[in-house]
Amino acid sequence: MFLVGRRKKILINKKFQLRMILTVLLLMFTSILFAGAFSYFITMRIEQERHYPIYETFEDTDEVRTVSSLFLAESVIARALLISVLITFPLALIMVLYYSHRIAGPLYHIEKHLGLMIEGECSRPLRLRKGDEFKEIAEKINRLQDTLKER
């Protein structure tokens, strides 16, 4: 009863959906790559510190050196995570803005064009920019407009 009208296909517009999926996966891969690189460099720095301390301790015992290394590790990890977030967040923001612009812009133009068609004021075809989404819809709207002009 509640499944009436439910879609059976997951990929409705394969080209568009696959491009969006690949974009999100690329963003995730980039974030993982940054996190992995920072983890590697942090680990190498901690290992280097363990063998060659940067600072002097008052007591020359393994316990003091271990506590110092742990403190250094926490400090380095915190800085690395902050740097990772500061790098990946702007990249994610830029990618989201870019793709939302490629979607929202055409939707805005399609809505305005349909409004003009309803009012009978539209005599020019709907044109979208290169790289914009929904070009197939724009072509169908233009064909509809031509058909309505012929009548």
Describe the structure.
It is a single chain. By secondary structure, this protein is an all-alpha fold. It has one domain. Helix content is 74%, strand content 0%. The protein has three helices and no strands. It has helices at residues 14-51, 62-119, 135-150. Helix 1 (14-51) packs antiparallel against helix 2 (62-119) and helix 2 runs parallel beside helix 3. 3% of the residues are buried.
Q: How many DSSP-defined strands?
A: 0
Per DSSP, the total helix count is 3
Order of helices and strands: HHH
Task: Determine the N-to-C terminus distance.
Answer: 42 Å
The tally of structural domains comes to: 1
The main sheet comes to:
none
Alpha carbon gyration radius: 28 Å
Low-confidence stretches: none
Q: What percent of the residues sit in helical stretches (DSSP H or I)?
A: over 70%
Strand content: under 5%
Overall residue-averaged pLDDT value: 76
| Backbone shape | rod-shaped
Structural class: mainly alpha
